[in-house]
Amino acid sequence: MLRSYLRAASTIPQRSLHLSHTSIRRSIACRTCTPPRGRAYATTAIPQPGPNCSENFRTFTGQPGKPDIYSFWEKQTCTWQYVVADPVTSKALIIDPVLDFDKANGRVSTETADCMLDFIERRGLKITRIMETHAHADHLTSSQYLKTKLGGNVPVCIGKRITKVQETFAPRYHVQPTELQHTFDVYLEDNEVFKLGDLEFEVMHLPGHTPDHVAYRVDSCVFTGDSIFEPDVGSARADFPGGSAKDLYKSLRKLMGLPGDYKLFVGHDYPPEGREPNCVSTVDRHKATNKHINSTVDEPTFIKVREDRDKLLAAPRLLHPSLQVNIRGGRVPAKLVDPASK
């Protein structure tokens, strides 16, 4: 299991990866996801986002008093990123942005983030917050890069339990306590409510995948991070330190208890062959068809399925660089410890 893998990693001698910010030429897929049936949103084509992006963006265009939601697909890590905007004031926030990383040569680049920045500028949006759902273990966050490019005053926000995750992983990667001071700007409380223009967001604590995991609800839309996945994929793994299949079941049941027309926007998608990446399904669809957490699945069954599945999963490809950057709040150190190399 992943917990054992991480424990073993802490005993392996260090070798460092030197990071270069040289741009990596790569194909960035910027695309929409398929909207759920029966939704109250219209899908609207908007202008080309810029030269580094291979496709047009599209948007779920909100009604007055409802959010405009823009989805960004990063295909190397199968990550969905979001820009959520108040259509009245054009104030917006970013959820779970990706920093590109080439593991083969240890280089980071910012094409995915620059693609998003180009889009934000073209749409005339004013970013007021950058939101993280948790400390990701499968991709690096571009939150600090975006903060800098947006003027340096946009707060990076995360759930308050990130400190527990930092305490767990800092010794394993030889991160000094001073490096973790003021890593994030806002530490969110459970059920905290904050405003984005005329929109109201609520913080939902959803432990299980990681202990610090939160989701963000605005109107009938919930940005679920790595808790629930699309119905034919199921749910996120629960074998990280501090993770728990039992806690994850309770978190997913919390989501399933929302009104049936609520839309759950996922943090990743791993589509089976023949299906395009998708980012959203309704609660009713999950209750009817989610392979892990539909309405017929009880807690013991879910725990067994989830734990059995986790035993078969390999460690995420970018596990070590992701955790080292993400517990630092997106700050890339001069060197990354590579415990996989002896």
UniProtKB/TrEMBL annotation:
Keywords: Metal-binding
SMART domains named among the record's database cross-references: Lactamase_B
Protein name: Metallo-beta-lactamase domain-containing protein
GO molecular function: metal ion binding; sulfur dioxygenase activity
Biological process terms in GO annotation: glutathione metabolic process; hydrogen sulfide metabolic process
Presence of keyword Phosphoprotein: no
Cited PANTHER family: PERSULFIDE DIOXYGENASE ETHE1 (PTHR43084), PERSULFIDE DIOXYGENASE ETHE1, MITOCHONDRIAL (PTHR43084:SF1)
Domain Metallo-beta-lactamase: 78-268
Signal peptide positions on this chain: none
